[in-house]
Amino acid sequence: MCVLFVVIGAILGGILGQLLMKVDALAGIMPYLVTTYPVFDITPVTFNLYVIQLTLGLAFAPNLMSILGIVLAIVLFRKY
User: Fold this and answer.
1) Which domain holds residue 14?
2) pTM for this prediction
3) How many domains is the chain built from?
4) Residue among 71, 72, 69, 80 nearest 14 (CA)
5) pLDDT of 25-43, one tens digit each?
6) Closest Cα to residue 54, out of 68, 44, 66?
7) How far is CA 45 from CA 12, 35, 41, 53, 56, in A?
8) 40: three-class secondary structure by DSSP
9) From the CB of residue 50, how many other CB atoms can be counted at a distance below 10 Å?
10) Residue 16 burial by CB count (10 A; 0-12/13-18/19+): exposed, middle or buried?
């Protein structure tokens, strides 16, 4: 359940950051909050099984707003 909270917090934090980019009052600070920082990137690997072609890869590049969402999700999870 905690992992679900963390993933949803990261997604909602990233979405909130993108929405707040449009606010003129926050124009000076928002580029710093929505800049992504690549943590790891696993290049896609393609498996051709002749019936289907499967491509798998994973990248994790959070921004500060998504990290804030993760922290808030953990606090909310511990509280309830």
Assistant:
1) 2-79
2) 0.78
3) 1
4) 69
5) 888 898 898 999 999 999 9
6) 44
7) 29, 27, 12, 10, 5
8) strand
9) 5
10) middle
